[in-house]
Amino acid sequence: MTDLPPSRQRQLEQWVQKSALPTADATNWVRLDQALTHKSVDAANNYEQLELLGDAVLRLAATECLQENFPNASVGELSAVRSVLISDRTLAQLAQELDLAPYLTVASRMAVGPTHLADALEAVVAVLYLETQTLGPVRAWLDDSLLRLTAAVRQDPARQNYKVALQELTQAHSKTLPQYRTVEQRSVDGDPQRYASTVWFRETCWGSGHGPTKKQAEQAAAAAAYDRLRQTLTHESSSSAT
Amino acid sequence: MTDLPPSRQRQLEQWVQKSALPTADATNWVRLDQALTHKSVDAANNYEQLELLGDAVLRLAATECLQENFPNASVGELSAVRSVLISDRTLAQLAQELDLAPYLTVASRMAVGPTHLADALEAVVAVLYLETQTLGPVRAWLDDSLLRLTAAVRQDPARQNYKVALQELTQAHSKTLPQYRTVEQRSVDGDPQRYASTVWFRETCWGSGHGPTKKQAEQAAAAAAYDRLRQTLTHESSSSAT
Question: CA A95 → CA A34, A39, A88, A115, A128, distances in Å?
Fold first, then answer.
């Protein structure tokens, strides 16, 4: 294993302590350095491959954590909360709380944005996972934060009411509102998901959902659409700004 | 633990043998039964919660399997292959190969579609994962299939060429073609991802990608858009058909 420059090594040791990262005794410092290196400084050894893995690890860790702690929540609700938890916005916030930014190596002219912080955090999650090939250390590190963020998501009226949140989102970007198409299903015997709803914006269906009432089906559709539409509209804004 | 009716128990034992499912000696038959039960027959004990977990487990297993077997592939390529591997279409195909359909319990009037097969397979993956909380048994069961499917994906010219695949998809549903908007990036020093591309259809951006050439950036954008657009268009077709 290649040794890191002593200054970088000390830097990483400092962050491990600060962030309470539960790495093994024989920490793979080269891999941790890679997780905190952007491709702008090293096209070969950067966080991209680790991020691909860490993204999947984090999704599984969040799913386990939510299902264990909210055994009575519906799949639709857990899925909606999960999508918020593993969104770039939430992960960037978590990375800030863990003071990750000063330890992320990027090209000097590059501005570090929320996506970079989220990606690097996912890469660090992959480093932890690879040490044991189990989710134990990842969950020991992040469960408390995930549960705190979940409580915030569930208490935030705008996020609990996805129809309102979606409407605010589309209004911020255009004058049109999302449209719901909801049908009552009769075909399946004993199916408690009586209503099926899709949500439309700009002639495109962005999400669908089911529920025992019309309102719940529409909320589920709005929840399914929210993150996808937010990412697209944000992308459009930043594209048209450049 | 509630016992299953003897006929169902024998049925499940038969499928475990047929599909070579590497369950533990003390198989949780009730949970396996749940993984193979649609909500139309049991609103409380069905595959939905297991599917939420299994979806995340399978995504992680596929990521690990791909990264281990294709250490030199780019993140973009691995990510594109992964999205095909864990798509409903591929999982339904795999479920067919494992002869899952006859063991899936659904309401008598219900037609079993590819989505149901994919969902139930994900739920079975969760059952395996929960036995050991590791990916070992899941990967022992599915790695060979994932690698075989990966080889097929990489050899299929239509899938290797995502721009062609995307064009075929949109032409099947409407007379318009997807539009690419590609820009050359100059801002970041030493960034090998020189071109950034977005793909548009019906005034909506469906995917974005980067690459060292214009062509590779557009291929990456098409790959990112493919599954999302396919799901939406399929959904529209089935909605308008009913």
Answer: 16, 19, 10, 10, 15
